[in-house]
Specification:
N-terminal domain of MutM-like DNA repair proteins; 2 domains; 6 helices; 10 strands; 19% strand; elongated
């Protein structure tokens, strides 16, 4: 599933369509596609993992899900979920979710939760985390209402950076460690974006899909943890499990 920085790259690539009129719309989406024809694009935006096309009275929300993709000014050998034609090119999206948002985007989205937004509010993120003390760190980092745009790569890399075991409940983290979690999630969003643009993201992975801890030179543990049951990669030696002395059950 593409994470927030990848959607930000998609947004920037599609920004040339802002101010353009939709001349053609087709695809196999279940929305009323012809409703889009003739409408001007007010803005191209994103929130976390959501790509947004703002129109005069409503917006299009595109979520690439697990296997979605997009093409600008070119097409794949597959039927697009939605294809939009403009005077200056076309946007095609595949294997994704397309939804119409009738309400203003400011009513739907909390921009202060977007890890890449200029409106990001770390104090608000810390308040949200303190309100869910029993939530495990591995689940908290995937909570889009706290860290919009963060995904499994974020989770594994941030927890490794700050030396926190994924099964640590938030309420057991010292205040300084909670602040570090929030700050490093924001920092990793921009690191991810920089590396993704340079086509070298995987080169910088320290924990995600890795076999050996670069700090301890011992095997990393691979396990599906927490309520989300997403794959975690972590080191039992240098990532402290706060709030419990119980050993980790790995798979």
């Amino acid at each position: 599933m593409p994470e927030g920085p990848s959607i930000a790259i998609m947004r920037d690539a599609a920004s040339k369509f802002a101010g353009q009129t939709i001349l053609r719309a087709d695809g196999n989406s279940k929305i009323d596609i012809q409703r889009l024809v003739g409408l001007p694009v007010v803005a191209i935006r994103s929130w976390g993992k959501h790509f947004l096309i703002q129109l005069p009275d409503f917006s299009l929300r595109i979520h690439l899900l697990l296997f979605g993709s997009y093409r600008i000014d070119e097409r794949k050998d597959a039927s697009p979920r939605l294809s939009l034609g403009f005077a200056n090119g076309e946007l095609n999206v595949y294997a994704c979710s397309v939804e119409l948002i009738e309400e203003p985007l400011e009513l739907r989205y909390d921009w202060s939760a977007d890890t890449l937004s200029d409106q990001w509010d770390p104090a608000a993120a810390r308040r949200k985390l303190r309100a869910i003390p029993d939530t495990l760190a591995c689940d908290a980092l995937l909570d889009q209402q706290v860290f919009a745009g963060a995904g499994n790569i974020f989770k594994n890399e941030v927890l490794f950076r700050i030396r926190v075991h994924p099964l640590s409940p938030l309420g057991a983290l010292p205040p300084a460690k909670l602040r570090e979690l929030v700050a490093q999630t924001r920092q990793y969003a921009f690191d991810f974006l920089t590396w993704k643009k340079a086509f070298e993201l995987k080169k910088h992975w320290q924990a995600h899909r890795q076999r050996t801890c670069p700090r301890c030179a011992i095997p990393l543990v691979k396990a599906k943890l927490g309520k989300t049951q997403r794959q975690s990669y972590f080191c039992e030696r240098c990532q402290k499990r706060f709030g419990s002395g119980k050993p980790t059950t790995s798979t």
